[in-house]
Amino acid sequence: MDVLNALVALSNFVIIPAAAYGAQLALGALGVTLIYGILRFSNFAHGDTMAFGTALVILVTWGLQALGISLGPLPVALLALPIGIALCSVFVLGTDRAVYRFYRRKRSEPIILVMASVGVMFIMNGLTRLVIGVDEIRFDDGARFLVTVQQFKAWTGLTEGLALRVSQVLTLVITALACWALFRFLNRSRAGKAMRAYSDNEDLALLSGIDPERIVRLTWIIATALAVTAGTLYGLDKSFKAFNYFQILLPIFAASIVGGLGNPLGAVAGGFIVAFSEVAVTYPWKKVAGYLGIQSDGLLQLLSTEYKFAVSFVILIVVLLFRPTGLFRGKSV
Amino acid sequence: MSNTRQADATSRWRALIVFAAIVVLFLLEGTTRNALFSGSWNTALAILNMGLISAVMALGVNMQWGYAGLFNAGVVGFLALGALGPVLVSTAPVQGAWAAGGPRVILALVVGFGTLVLAAQVWKRAGRGWRIPALIATLVVGFVAYRWLFDPAVMAIEANNSASAGNIGGFGLPVLLSWPVGALLAAGAAWGVGKVALGLRSDYLAIATLGIGEIIVAVMRNEEWLARGVKNMSGIPRPVPYELDLQNDPGFVAKAAAWGLDAATASGIWVKLLYAGLFGVVLLVLILLAELALKSPWGRMMRAIRDNETAASAMGKNVTGRHLQIFIIGSAVIGLAGAMMVTLDGLVSPGGFNPLRYTFLIWVMVIVGGSGNNWGAVLGAILVWFLWIKAEVWGPALMHLITAPLPEGGLRSQLLGGAPHMRFIAMGLVLLLVLRFAPRGLVPEK
Q1: Is ipTM strictly over 0.85?
Q2: Chain B interface disruption, residue of A95, A108, A130, most B CBs within 10 A
Q3: Hey, are the CB atoms on B425 and A309 less than 8 Å from each other?
Q4: CA distances from B176 to A227, B79, B279, B286, B294 (A)
Q5: d(CA A25, CA A175)
Q6: Contacts of A109 in chain B (CB under 8 A)
C-alpha cells in the first residue's frame, strides 16, 4: 500500500493530461454551444475552423521565428495567436456573409444550415491542406517542462515521477482566463446581455431593438476566437495534424450536448466530463493498482486507446437517452 | 395543372441532358489523350465502376435524406460494415483459426449483446429505487464476463499464423452471396443507432451517426481477428475471371487480336466491362424497387411525413417508426455498396476509410444530383465521382497555369504541392453553390 506514489501516478497519467484535454474540449464546446444558441444549428465546420485557425497561427509563428522573436520559456505561438484569430475571424465572417446569412434570412430548417456547414467544412479542410499540408507539425518552442520527472523525484524522494509540461499549464491558465472573460462578457456587458436575450427569444430581442446581424457577427468572432485558441493549445500540447481536428469534433459535440446545447456553463462542464471519462477508461490502471496493493496480470485497461471516441459516443448516447436537454438544461430537443 | 406538366417535361429533359453529359465525358476519357483526359478505356471503365458503386451509396443516402430528411453523417461506417460481408462470407477459411477461439468469440459477442438487452429490460422492469444500481451491476458483470471470454480468444486467433492470416477467416462461399450479408450487417447497426437517436432533434441523428461511423472504422482498423485491421485483407474472391487467366487463354487472345487490341489491355477492359454489367444490374434493380416504393402508398406516406411531420402524425402515421424503417433500408443499401466496393478492389484496407471521401462526398453527390429523385442521385453520383477523380489531375494542371508567372521558389512549390487538395475546396464550393442556387439539384424531384 503506497498511497502517495499511487496519487502521483494518478496525477501524472490521468488528472493532469485529462485536465488539459478537458480544457481544450471545453473551449471548443463553448464555440459550438454559442453558435447553436444564437444561430440554432450544429456547426460541423467547427473542427476544421480549429484546424484552419491553428494552421494560420503556425504560419505566423514561423514568420515570427524567422524574424528572431522569442518569448523565452513560453512558445512564440502565443504571440501569433491573436493574429491567427483575427485572420480566421475575417474568413469565418466571410463564410457567414456568403453562406449562412441567406439561410438565416429565409429561416431555413436547421438541417439545411448543417448541410451548408458541411460545405464550409470541405472548403476549410481543403484550405488547411493547401496552406500547411497533411503532415504532423510540432510548433512548440521555449521550455518544454515546468517540472520534469527527475526534478520531481529529486525533490520528493518518491519512486514515481511527475512531469508538468508548459503546454498543459498554459492550457489551463488560458482556458480559465477565457472562461472568466466570456462569462463576464455574457453576464455584465450590454452586448453580452443582448446575445443572451437573442438566444432566449429571437423575436422579443428584435422587438427590443437588438440588431440581429451584430449579434451574429459577435457570436462568430467569439466562437472563432475560442476555436482557434482551443486548436492552438491542442496543437501545442500534442502536435498539429489536420485530420485530428476533424476527429475531435465528436468529443466536442458530446461535451456540448452533455452540458446542454446552448448553455455555456454546461459546455465547460461537459468538456471536462468527456475528457476525464475518456482518459480514465483508456488508461491502464495496473501501476496505480499496484501501488494500492492490488497486483494484476492484465493491464486493467477498460478500452484500448484506439477506441477513445467510443467513450464520447457512449456518453452522448446515455445523455440522449436519459436527459436529452443535457445536464444543465440547454435548449429543448 | 399546366404548371406541373411543364415541370415534368423540363425535369425529364434535365435527366437526359445530364446523362448525355456523363456519356460524353466518359467517351472523351476513353478516346482522347491530352492534358485533361487519359485516353485509356481501362481508366474510363475503372472510374465508371467506382461511379456505379457510388451511385448505389447515393441511392441509400437519398432514401434517408430525400425520402425522409434524415441526415446520416456516418455513411463511412455503414460502408465499412458492408465491407465486412465479403471478408466473413467469401474469403477462404483460415487453418486453425476457428479451433483457436472461434466459438469463444461468438459466445463473448452474444454475452456482450445479451448484457445490453438485459440492461434495457432491467431499466424497464426494475422498481424506481433499484433501477440505477441494478443497471450498473448488470453492465459491470456483463462487461467483465465479456472481456474474460473475449480477450484470450482474440489473442489465440491473432497468434494463429499472424504473418499471413491472424484472422478468423471466412466460409469460402461465392462472393455474390456475401453482398446481402454486408447489407444485413449495416442494417443491424442502423437499427441500433436509429432506436436511440431518431425521434430527437434532427441534428442529433447527424451527431450520433458521425460517432457510430468513427467507431465502426476504429473497429475495422484495430480488430485484427476480424479483418486483419490495418494489415489489410486481400484475396477477396471475384465474381469475374482474372486478367491473367484471360491472357493465357488462346481463344481470348485471338478474339482480342480480331478487335485490334493486345491481350493485356483487352483483358483489363473485358473484366471491367463484366464488373460494370454486374454493378449496373444491381443499380437498375435497386432503382426499380426504389421507384416502385416511392410511387406506392408507402412512398406517398414517406413524402408526407418528410414535408410535414406534424400533419402526418396527426393523420395517425407513426413518424419515428417510419423514420427507423427508412433509415435501416437506406443503411442496408449503403452496406451493399460497401460489399460491392471491396469485391471490386479485391481488398479491404480500413486505413482508407476516410469520412470526407466516403461520407461527405456521397452527400455532395446526392445534393448535386437532386435529393428525393433516385435518377438524380445516381446521375449526380457518377458525375461527381468522375469530376472528383479528374480534379486530382486537373487541380495541379490549373495550378501550373496560375503560378506560371510566379518565380521558381518557396511559394510556387508550396502551391503546386498542395494543388491536389484543391478538389476539397472545389467540392465544398459545388455543394454550397448547388444548395444555394439550385437546392433541388440537377435533376429535381417531380
Answers
A1: yes
A2: A130
A3: no
A4: 48, 16, 11, 16, 27
A5: 10
A6: 202
Q: Contacts of residue A99 in chain B, CB cutoff 8 Å?
A: 432, 436
The DSSP 8-state label assigned to residue A248 in this structure reads T
Alpha-carbon B299 to chain mean position: 23
Tell me the domain boundaries of chain B. Answer: 2-93+169-437, 94-168
Phi and psi (nearest 5°) for B234?
Answer: -110, 180
Distance, in Å, from the CA atom of B273 to the CA atom of B265, rounded to the nearest integer, reads: 12
Residue A251's pLDDT band, with cuts at 50, 70 and 90, is very high
d(CA A107, CA A122): 23
The pLDDT tens digits of the residues spanning A261-281 come to: 888 899 999 999 999 999 999
> Contact A281/A302 with Cβ under 8 angstroms?
yes
- The predicted pLDDT at position A201 comes to 86
What is the share, in percent, of chain B residues with pLDDT greater than 70?
97
Domains and CATH numbers, chain A: 3-322 (1.10.3470)
Please state, as a whole number, how many other Cβ atoms lie within 10 Å of the Cβ of residue A166. 19
Closest residue in chain A to residue B396, using alpha carbons only: A130
Candidates A42, A121, A313; nearest CB to B212: A313
Please write down the HEC assignment for all residues of chain A. Answer: CCHHHHHHHHHHHHHHHHHHHHHHHHHHHHHHHHHHHHHCCCCCCHHHHHHHHHHHHHHHHHHHHHCCCCECCECCHHHHHHHHHHHHHHHHHHHHHHHHHHHHHHCCCHHHHHHHHHHHHHHHHHHHHHHHCCCCECCCCCCCEEECHHHHHHHHCCCCCCCEEHHHHHHHHHHHHHHHHHHHHHHHCHHHHHHHHHHHCHHHHHHCCCCHHHHHHHHHHHHHHHHHHHHHHHHHHCCECHHHHHHCHHHHHHHHHHHCCCCHHHHHHHHHHHHHHHHHHHCCCHHHHHHCCCCCCCCCCCCCHHHHHHHHHHHHHHHHHHCCCCCCCCCCC
Nearest to A321 among B196, B211, B219 (CB): B196
| Topology classification of domain B2-93+169-437 | ABC transporter involved in vitamin B12 uptake, BtuC (1.10.3470)
Sign for the pseudo-dihedral over CA of B370, B373, B376, B380: positive
The pLDDT value recorded for residue B6 is: 38
- Cβ separation A126–B208 shorter than 8 A: no
The reported pLDDT for the residue numbered A218 is: 94
Q: Is the pTM of this model over 0.80?
A: yes
The 3 state secondary structure assigned to A5-19 is: HHHHHHHHHHHHHHH
Is residue A315 left, alpha or beta, with left meaning phi > 0 and alpha meaning psi from -120 to 50? alpha
Query: Which residue on chain A is closest to B123 by alpha carbon?
Result: A322
Residue with cell 504532423: A136
Per residue in A97-140, pLDDT (tens digit) is: 999 999 999 988 888 899 999 999 999 999 998 888 888 889 88
Sorted by sequence, the CB contacts under 8 Å of residue A217 that are 6+ apart come out as A93, A96
Alpha-carbon distance of A134 to B121, in angstroms, equals 47
- Provide the β-strand partners of residue A71: A74
Mean pLDDT of B218-223: 88
pLDDT digits (tens, 9 = 90+) for B260-314: 888 888 888 899 999 999 999 999 999 999 999 988 999 889 888 888 888 998 9
